[in-house]
Structures are given as C-alpha cells and as structure tokens.
Design a protein that fits this description.
The chain has 438 residues and is α+β, with helices and mostly antiparallel strands. The chain contains eight helices and 25 strands. The protein binds guanosine-5'-diphosphate (GDP) and magnesium ion. Guanosine-5'-diphosphate binds next to helix 1. Pfam families: GTP-eEF1A_C (PF22594), GTP_EFTU (PF00009), GTP_EFTU_D2 (PF03144).
Length: 438
C-alpha cells in the first residue's frame, strides 16, 4: 500500500466565525475525539457559562483560551480520508494574536476560510469583509494557491439555511478572491453549521437546495500539492518542545527535500550541528519525514534555550543554510501606511514562521509589477499599489532564501496594526560565512 499524500490545512477567518467549533466538531464526527471528552467539555463549559464553546475546546486547550472563549495558540490535529492524511491547524482570529495565525498559515498547503454571514454582534474596528480580505491577502502572500470557503452558521436565526444568504456571501467573497489573484471558480464554497455539525461530513435535510459536496468531500477532492522533494532540505520550526522520556523535540514542516533519521542538520543561527535521533509524525515513529510533512524531530545535543530563536534547519552537507545580513526583495504595497514606506522604515517582517525587525535601506526602483519595467529610480517613498525593488537589513542576522530556490523561505509579509502593509518575494540575499561551533 502506498502511503497517503499529506496535506496541511489552516483554518483562518475572523474571531467568532466558528473556526474552532468546526474543527472540533469535525474531529468528533470523525471519531478522533470521543464523546466522553465532548461530554466532559460540555459539563465544564456549561459551569463556566461558556457552553457554546464545547466543540471549540477540542482545540482551545489552555485556561486563558477557555475563559476568554477565544483561540490564542495554534494547535494541530490530524485525520485521514481515503485519499489523504490531513493536518488541521486551528488559528486565532482575534487581532491580538494574528501573528500566531500568520505563522500557521505560512505552513499550510490549503487555507480554509471560515466566514460568518449572520448579523454582527458587537461593534468592530473593521467590517467582517475587511477581515476576510486581510486573510485572503495573507494566504496569497504566502503562496497558498488552494482555498476552501466555509459559509458557517447556516443554522442561525438570521441565516435559516437560506440559499440567497449563501449566494450573496459567496458573491462578495469571490469578488475579493479575484482581486487578490485567486481563480474564484477553483475555490469551493460550502454552507455548514459547525455547531450542529451539518454538512461537515454528512448532508443535512435542511439544506435541500445544496447539491455540492460536504466539507470532508471537498477536502477529499483536493488535488495533491506538488512538492519540491529533490531540492535540499529546509525544515521550518514552529516550536521546540521538551517531552519527558524523549528529550527535545522540534515540531515543524519539511518545506523542501526530506529529513531522515541519522541525518546531520545545521542551524545557521546557533552555528551548530545536530543529529536526528528519531522522527515522529502524529505519534507514529517514521524513518523519513517527506517533503510537505509536519513532523517532530528528536535531536541530539540541542541547547534548549537557544532553540527558541531557531527557525530553520538544513542539511549539514547539502546546500547548508546560512545567516543573511541583507536581502533584496520585490514588494508591493497593499495598504497605505501613515508613516509611508520610505528609507529608514523599520517594520517587522514575517518570513515563514519567524518575524524579524528590519530596516528599509534602499528603494532601488519603482517598477511595473507584471513586466518589471523600471518606472522610477531611487524614489524617496512608496504608496499604496506601488511595486518596487527594495533592500532590507535585518537588525540581527536571519534565515531567509531567494524565492526561486526555497519559496517558503523567500516570501515576506509586513503587517502593522493588523493590516498587511506590504508583501513580496526575496530576489537576492547577502550571506554570512559558514561557521560551526561544535
Ligand atoms: N449557531 C451557530 N453558532 C456557531 C456555529 N459555529 C460556531 N458558533 C458559535 O460561535 C462562537 C465562536 O465560535 P468559535 O469556534 O470559538 O469561533 P472562532 O473564534 O472562529 O474559533 C461560539 O459561541 C460558537 O458556539 C454555528 O455553526 N452555528
Ligand atoms: Mg477559535
């Protein structure tokens, strides 16, 4: 039997749209969470006056998350269909924790956008549509080509399983998708109720008009993502964990190449090498972590403290990753920034699961986005919709790569006050010399 292809999914969308509830209820229906656990959540959440969050608690595991009724962390669970092995990442929608959402989305193959078309319950700084737009921008900037849109809460009083509300929502979201370069025809839209578990795995009688797939069917119908297996290894770390009896485990994604037991890995930030003791993929020991997989690596001789700052590992003998002290990027300004994007601008730049403080050293040229034709040399600032070639200098050396070599480490995103200011790709990097301490 050939092994099933692996796909990672990130739930994304505004706070309270029902991401955690959908994810939790889906796992319950797939019997990945037993009813006893749900009954326990039901009882305790009821006592806390948060009974509507019983399914969300499958993913919202911490005390702070449960008391506040919001997702803060980014939690991953797995499940299988007959074609694929999925990793399902639940992300926070609350604007205070959007950094965690960005990091999770950066490791996803497919984004699951959850939208709530029912009436808004409290005043917000931005409209729901603006939040949806931000998430679509984030996933596009990270090169996520596939998306599934779930129109949630069909059971709510103001929705009442209405086809017209579904179609209206679909039309609005499709317009945004198109604006940011997605082909709306390739994005399935599915009406669901995360709370009642309707149309997640099984169809519901209430939705007689719905002839399309359920959420799970849509996932099973996805095309397997293409993987860059033959390129040397880059492993992006989400978090280090200390597991009793095993030792230090780094959890992350095999972005390119593959990782093997016994392989010597190198961290440019620590300037150290480690040997892979064992690899775990959703609680199962494996010999190889294939390209695209989310795995835990148990490493020999890792300094626990230093690991927090490490985001990328590569093979010690094959295209070893190096520290970067400066990089050139082709960026597009997606939003006007009150301070404007000019030389000296000091943004935090997201690259894969990491973010770094950088300084804009130089605006080389303003260009025409599609043709790269130079419109202006050395402009003093950039405004909304401008594209440009720029040079950034990180405050401290970082790990990054040219987009055409390692796409996952060559995409950058600048976000300020929860608004995406710029997005782009790295076209050139200035590397530091290779150093090895141990
Ligand atoms: N009526 C109804 N309420 C829902 C549905 N899905 C989620 N909710 C409620 O919406 C609130 C927020 O849900 P949660 O899953 O925490 O949203 P998240 O912030 O996107 O993760 C909770 O009170 C849920 O019970 C649904 O399909 N129907
Ligand atoms: Mg949540």
């Amino acid at each position: 039997m050939t092994e099933k292809k692996f796909i990672s999914l990130a739930m994304m969308g505004n706070v309270d749209s029902g991401k955690s509830t959908i994810a939790g209820n889906l796992l319950r229906q797939l019997k990945k969470v037993d009813n006893k656990t749900i009954l326990r959540y039901e009882k305790i959440s009821y006592e806390m006056g948060k009974s509507s969050f019983k399914y969300a608690w499958v993913f919202d595991q911490s005390k702070a998350e449960r008391e506040r009724g919001i997702t803060i962390n980014w939690t991953t669970r797995d499940f299988e269909t007959d074609r694929f092995h999925f990793a399902l990442m639940d992300t926070p929608g609350h604007h205070c924790f959007v950094k965690n959402a960005i990091r999770a989305i950066s490791q996803a193959d497919v984004a699951i956008l959850v939208v709530d078309p029912t009436t808004q319950r409290f005043p917000r700084r931005y409209t729901d549509q603006e939040y949806n737009e931000e998430y679509i921008k984030i996933s596009k900037s990270f090169g996520i080509e596939k998306m599934v849109v779930l129109v949630n809460k069909i059971d709510e009083k103001s929705f009442k399983y209405s086809e017209s509300i579904f179609l209206k929502t679909k039309k609005e979201i499709r317009r945004i998708l198109k604006e940011y370069g997605y082909n709306p025809k390739r994005v399935p839209f599915i009406p669901v109720s995360g709370w009642k578990g309707e149309n997640l795995i099984e169809k519901t009688e209430q939705l007689g008009w719905w002839k399309g797939p359920t959420f799970l069917e849509a996932l099973n119908n996805l095309k397997a993502p293409s993987r860059k297996t033959i390129i040397p290894l880059r492993f992006t770390i989400r978090k280090p964990e200390r597991i009793s009896g095993i030792g230090t485990v780094v959890v992350g994604k095999v972005e390119t190449g593959q990782v093997r037991v016994g392989q010597k890995l190198y961290s440019p930030i620590l300037e150290q090498q480690f040997v892979v003791n064992s690899i775990e993929k959703f609680h199962q020991k494996v010999q190889v972590g294939e390209c695209g997989a989310l795995v835990g690596l148990n490493l020999r001789n890792v300094p626990w403290r230093g690991l927090r700052k490490v985001f990328v590992l590569g093979d010690l003998y094959d295209d070893i990753p190096r520290k970067i002290i400066q990089f050139t990027a082709k960026i597009t300004v997606l939003n006007t920034n009150p301070k404007r994007v000019k030389v000296g601008y000091n943004p935090i730049i997201h690259i894969s699961t990491a973010h770094h403080l950088c300084r804009l050293e130089k605006i080389v040229a303003k260009i025409e986005k599609s043709t790269n034709e130079v419109l202006e040399q050395n402009p003093s600032f950039l405004k909304k919709n401008d594209s440009a070639i720029v040079i950034f200098k990180p405050l401290r050396p970082i790990c990054a790569e040219c987009f055409h070599q390692h796409p996952a480490l060559g995409r950058i995103l600048i976000q300020e006050h929860n608004i995406i200011v710029c997005a782009g790709i790295i076209t050139d990097v200035q590397k530091m010399d290779f150093l090895l301490k141990n």
